[in-house]
Amino acid sequence: MYNFEYKNPVKILFGKGQIAKLKDELPAGTKILMLYGGGSIFKNGVYNQVTEALTGFDVVEFGGIEPNPTYETSMEAVKVVKRENIGFLLSVGGGSVLDATKFIAAASLYEEGDPRDFLKPGKDKVPVQKALPLGSVLTLPATGSEMNGNSVISIRETTEKLAFGSLHVMPKFSVLDPETIFSLPDKQVANGVVDAFVHVIEQYLTFPVDSPLQDRQAEAVLLTLIEEGPKVLANRKDYNASANFMWSATIALNGLLGVGVPQDWATHGIGHELTAYHGIDHARTLAIVLPALMDVKRKQKEAKLLQYGERVWNIREGSVDERIDQAIRKTVEFFESVGIPTRLPDYGVTMDTIERIEKRFAARGTKLGERYDIDAAETRKILEKQL
After folding, report:
1. Is 86 in the same domain as 190?
2. Helical pair 186-204 and 266-278, crossing angle rounded to 10 deg
3. Structural domains in the chain (count)
4. In the 8-state DSSP scheme, what is residue 368?
């Protein structure tokens, strides 16, 4: 196991009725900017619960944050922060709203240049040094953003989707009420299940470093998602299934599974490009890329692929390649069983997009994967498998 440092200061308020406790977590006498997306919180009752909890606080609202939050919309919110002298940000929504809130928190205090500096790929990225404090009320389990310092932002002007991370943008608290899942459409639940699943895979499906605890924790989350995800889809009012799903999505990316082990994130890096060029839901890009990446990198990931197949899918017979093939097939079947197509033609993506991604990665000198051996040409090979 590798050396590591781990710190997670996020306070979690989990369970039904927890939104009412917001008033105890927010700083008194501080002007609050409440951020949300397209309006689903008005339909599911979350807005009313939040505003009731905020009685007595000085609150300004900013809505309209996109499912793939953009730099452009986020910068409009930064203007509000500065105009209204906002001291605390409250994200009410899914991971996209929270990702935008994190960027807004950092951008609002950045005076040294354009906040796009935080998003630059590679060595040009500028680290976040300070940010406004923020909290969240999560309404869609998926990204794990409620308990980490990660954020992904799209830039419309350049057709890019880029990530940054910082301890400075970790929420002070996150409220997770599983009842917010009850009103979600099938598509969002399915996306959340697949997103969380691949988050675990990216920290697990690499190469062995004698980390049995992390491996078994990762496998536990994968098995829970496989068991509980379909239950939520079958019965949205199943509170226990919703609670198990919601907590699994948080654990999938709160940093604990990844300590002391190599991590991949190539599936995410490639998937972001599909979103940037075609607006495909993030989770669906992951479902496209992961099976092909598992296939192309089967030799490098052989030991963990076999372990994954045995422990998660109970695959114990056949040659090495046959067992790996079965593990990949089981993964595809799971994604498709929750309604997520896994091939590029399902989304109207052609060879033209693959060539554009290859060209962009070549220009950036992109190297992805736990061994940094997935370059532009390897990325093309992965995507071509899904045509």
Report:
1. no
2. 150
3. 2
4. B
The average confidence (pLDDT) of the chain is 97
pLDDT of residue 122: 86
What angle in degrees, to the nearest 10, is found between the helix axes of 266-278 and 376-384? 70
Together in a domain, 125 and 46? yes
Tokens of 199: 């988050």
- CB neighbours of 334 closer than 8 A, spacing ≥ 6? 197, 226
The C-alpha atoms of residue 39 and residue 35 are separated, in whole angstroms, by: 11
Q: Are residues 199 and 343 in the same domain?
A: yes
- Burial class from Cβ neighbours inside 10 Å (0-12, 13-18, 19+) for residue 271 reads buried
Cβ proximity of 14 and 273 under 8 Å: no
In a domain, 203, yes or no: yes
User: In which domain, by residue range, is 333 found?
Assistant: 186-384
Position 3 in a domain: no
Instruction: Tell whether 150 is covered by a domain.
Output: yes
Whether residues 114 and 194 share a domain: the answer is no
The answer on 298 and 199 residing in a single domain is yes
Average pLDDT over residues 213-221: 98
Instruction: Supply 370's token pair.
Output: 């736990």
Structure tokens at 210: 């004698």
pLDDT at site 97: 97
- Do 331 and 291 touch, CB atoms closer than 8 A? yes
**Length of the chain in terms of residues written:** 387
C-alpha 227/C-alpha 69 separation (Å) is 30
Q: Average the pLDDT over 292-316 and give the result.
A: 98
Q: Which of 132, 159, 179 is the last residue of a domain?
A: 179
Tokens standing for residue 221: 């989350």
pLDDT digits (tens, 9 = 90+) for 331-361: 999 999 999 999 999 999 999 999 999 999 9
Residue 101: name the closest of 121, 73, 125, 126 by CA.
Answer: 73
Contacts of 322 (CB under 8 A, 6+ apart): none
pLDDT in tens, 109-157: 999 999 999 999 988 999 999 999 999 999 999 999 999 999 999 999 9
| Residue 355 is assigned to a structural domain of this protein | yes
**196 and 163 in a common domain:** no
The 10s digit of each residue's pLDDT in 23-58 is 999 999 999 999 999 889 999 999 999 999 999 999
